[in-house]
Amino acid sequence: RRLNMREQLVRQVEIVPIEVVVRNVAAGSICKRLGLEEGEPLPHTLIEYYYKDDALGDPLIAEEHIACFNWAGPEEMQDIASMAIRINDFMCGMFASIDIRLVDFKLEFGRIFDGDFSRIILADEISPDGCRLWDMKTGEKLDKDRFRRDLGGEEEAYQEVARRLGLLDGENSGPGEVFDLNAHRGKLRTTPKKK
Predict the structure, then answer these.
(1) Domain spans of the chain?
(2) Cα–chain-centroid distance for residue 178?
(3) Is the pTM of the predicted complex or chain greater than 0.70?
């Protein structure tokens, strides 16, 4: 639960040692691995799994690896894939409504326990650091690729995403501006609807 723009109340989970990458458009490592052209739309949403191990470079793995090493059970993998697709559908629509293309993004999941039972939940943030976001009209990168590729303007790109989402006031947002969630909520409640 979000407390404010800097704090959230979270639950402790047992992390599933898998990074889930959901791809809608060819970009990043898939282009290098498969010789695809960056920006090429994929025939359908692709889910990839990577073993979470920095020392190994987070290698791409198959579902058979996950089952073989008991990192997640078959039902858990069904839940993970189902949640990943639902999250993708929601985020694609949300970003499309503000002229941003959701190219791909990373998710991490964890287990929460209730007695003898466990269930899978989303266990990490979703932010421009873990997403590739491109302006639909210009193709401008509005994500961490600005840093990875030394394009500059990371802060401005993140602020542009926040502005389009309605989290920053376009006129009053500058470097280092902190968004006040409670003030924003009050503004939403008191702003009359435009006809």
Answers:
(1) 14-139
(2) 21
(3) yes
Residue where the block lists tokens 């987070």: 58
> What residue ranges of the chain have pLDDT lower than 50?
173, 175-176, 179, 181, 184-185, 187-195
Q: Which of 37, 16, 18, 15 is nearest to 27 (CA)?
A: 37
> What would the CATH number be for the domain defined by 14-139?
3.30.470.20
CB 137 within 8 A of CB 164: no
Look at the alpha carbons of 80, 136, 155, 168 in this order and tell me if their dihedral is positive or negative. Answer: negative
- Quote the pLDDT of residue 195: 46
**Half-sphere exposure of 113 toward its Cβ, with a 13 Å CA cutoff?**
6
Q: What is the pLDDT of residue 127?
A: 84
d(CA 162, CA 99): 13
